[in-house]
Specification:
Layout: H1 6-12, E1 18-21, H2 22-27, H3 30-39, H4 47-63, E2 73-80, E3 85-93, E4 96-103, H5 111-127, E5 136-142, E6 154-155, E7 158-162, E8 165-166, H6 172-183, H7 208-216, H8 221-224, H9 234-251, E9 254-261, H10 267-279, E10 292-296, H11 299-319, H12 326-334, E11 337-339, H13 340-348, E12 381-385, H14 393-401, H15 419-428, E13 434-441, H16 454-463, E14 468-471, H17 485-489, E15 495-497, E16 502-503, H18 515-523, H19 527-539, E17 544-547, H20 550-560, E18 567-571, H21 591-596, E19 611-612, H22 614-617, E20 622-628, E21 633-636, E22 639-645, E23 651-653, H23 657-670, E24 674-681, H24 703-714, E25 718-719
Parallel strand pairs: 4-5, 5-8, 9-13, 9-14, 9-16, 10-11, 10-12, 12-13, 14-15, 17-24, 17-25, 18-19, 18-20, 20-24
Antiparallel strand pairs: 1-2, 2-3, 3-4, 6-7, 21-22, 22-23
Helix pairs in contact: 3-4, 7-10, 7-11, 9-10, 11-12, 18-19
Length: 720
Amino acid sequence: MTTLDKEEYVRRHPRCMYESSLSTFMRLSQGDILRNVVISYHGVVQDTQNEAWDEEIAILKEALAPWQTEHAHIVLEYDIPRLGKRIDVVLLLRGLIFCLEFKINKREAMQQDVEQVMDYALDLTNFHELSQGHKIVPILVPTEVKDYSTRLLPLEYSELIYNPLITGKAHLKETIQRVLDKEQAQEVAPEVDLSRWIISPYKPTPTIVEAARRLYEHHTVEDITRHEADKVSTDATTNYILKVIEESKVYGQKSICFVTGVPGAGKTLVGLDVAVKQTYKDGEQANEEEGAVYLSGNGPLVAVLTEALARDNWAKCRMRGEKKNISDSRREVGKFIQIIHRYRDNMLAKVKNPIENGVLEIDPHRAIRQRNAGYGEVEHVAIFDEAQRTWTHEHLAQWLKTGGSYGNKTRIANFPMSEAEFLIWSLDQREDWAVIICLVGGGQEINTGEAGISEWIRALNESFTHWHVYISPKLTAPEYAEGKVSQMLQDRQNVVYSDCLHLAVNLRSFRAESLSAFVHHVLAIERDEARQLYAQIKRQGYPVLLTRDIAAARRWLRQHSVGSQRTGIIASSAAARLRPLAVDIRVSPDAVHWFLEDKDDTRSSCYLEDVATEFDVQGLELDYVCLMWDADFRYEGGHWSYYRFNGSTKWNPVKVEERKKYMLNAYRVLLTRARQGMVICVPEGNGRLTAEHFPEDATRLPQFYDGTYDYLKSLGMDDL
């Protein structure tokens, strides 16, 4: 192998910056290897980076000399799509996979560096097809460290991954040899094609935060999800929506798309993908004329995504030597990810007030009419995530009557529209063309005043008959608008049904695609189906365990979380009597800190102190969770019973059916937040009596909890 021109080299090495047999690596000069690494680098190579690669290659040549004649393979700077990072070195030697992370000139190992190399190993064993079933050995190499790891142990719950080893350059050769000796590893037969490893199918399922970061760097959903899996249709959905946008522009029409999907199927990913592609379709600069805005009423989701993208953008700019404040990055991200209420209030500021005769009109003294946009907002395309959660007419009217909207303190009496109708009206103010994308979750309304998807359909039928409707056939299912969508649309023109607008596969949990179905059957009290699906997800390696002991649950979470994997404790917002267990839903965590801070930060979810509710976690996820199940939602007499705590002495039954629906949906959200496994903790309650033989705590009697525990246990769930 010789130095190649950049275009040819990058074509041949799409996932790394160098790869070859070990014998070729040892035969080539250090300069030739370095030149091949440099030409495949995307961007301007800094002198410090050049020097680091040069030092790394020199160390490898010395350390790997004993095996230079063996059938082995080496890869430098292997790209990990899910993490958006690169492994410094992958060494395929005697059937083992060594992941090496170098820290040039460092004299000590840092915790974040150990977690980094651990993440690499986990990523390979979970998602890289040709790495599965092989022993993976993560090694951190702070080059000037004098000591080295002497204990060679596997992870507690995975025999295939070593605990990270730490060694300086002086003992790297010895460390590799000791691992080979422990494994009694034999040379690989020459006919085994080790070069196939680099093109292995890669099936990552990113967290929503990781995915948003990658999309903001102008990657596609295909780059960051399980694109080799035939059933995953996120790209087909995105492409279908982009086609609708283009046709709406060409023909000057108004269109609305309804996208459905099972929990965790990637609806938010699709929304972000469309927002990025439409906004940045011309390159690095945002398209102000035809851009899209991603809107959500989920405050924690918007806050976490905005802050994660802003931090990432700020860090990358600093690495490139660009002067940029974190506040500038936040403003940049905020252009296309916004809280829906602020978008709504910007349009409210343009309407005549007071409203006369129940008709909403633009006040020309409060708004400027633009040539193409009319009185509408600048964006042609608005993406509404969790569209089923927009407010009813009654809730919005009451909210505006008191002047309580986000940032808009103007009181508006007698407001005539629901939030869904007003959002369509807002885009309809554009005089050229507009597209709305509604991302719809079935059975996920969790708050008072949320209208559901039927309100969108009603508004379209009554006020916006000229809009073209593109709809998922699944929107006719019972969990959407109580199954009335087909009936509501039967007489409407310009309706197109497309399977491309439904996402059927759970991407949140890469271990248990059947999790959402399992949760559905648990909540529907369909025992046989729930038992079968529990056995299935257990075989898939997704643990769902039961316990009565929160201390045991915390221990399990800490034992199973390695690298940068995130854990957390979650509970219903009505779980009022968990305080004796140091779980207090009254103290709401800051979502940004809870989801983004490192494990050593007490505000982090991983500290297992602050508890998040369904309002904090909807749309987001953790790797492992403990769900605390309180007496608000009980299995009694063969059915679910619903209770609200009165704040002092007792639980009162909930009688309003709408409130029951919200409580059921809250547990549906909570039960689908874990990507890799969860513990359900149903407390034992307090059965002790006072000296007078009265209950010590009448609000936490064992019978409030035992029925729920027994029901879950009857489904075959394993105890922790």
